[in-house]
Specification:
Elements: E1 3-6, H1 8-15, H2 19-26, H3 30-37, H4 46-56, H5 60-63, E2 64-67
Antiparallel strand pairs: 1-2
Length: 68
Amino acid sequence: MSKIVLKLDRMMVERKISLNELAERVGISNVNLSKIKNNKVSAIRFSTLCAICDVLDCEPGDILQIEK
């Protein structure tokens, strides 16, 4: 069965942004962002995804990937 995984860690390295800075700029806790970054979540709000993409200047497809 396929699943969607987040490649947020890769994008953060490319954009040279720390977990703390991204969490602050997105407006979520470090703990919640860490769970997102490490694929420890089963869902993500569109508003959170949009805020992450705004800060990282990317599209959702840049950080979402389907794994078979």
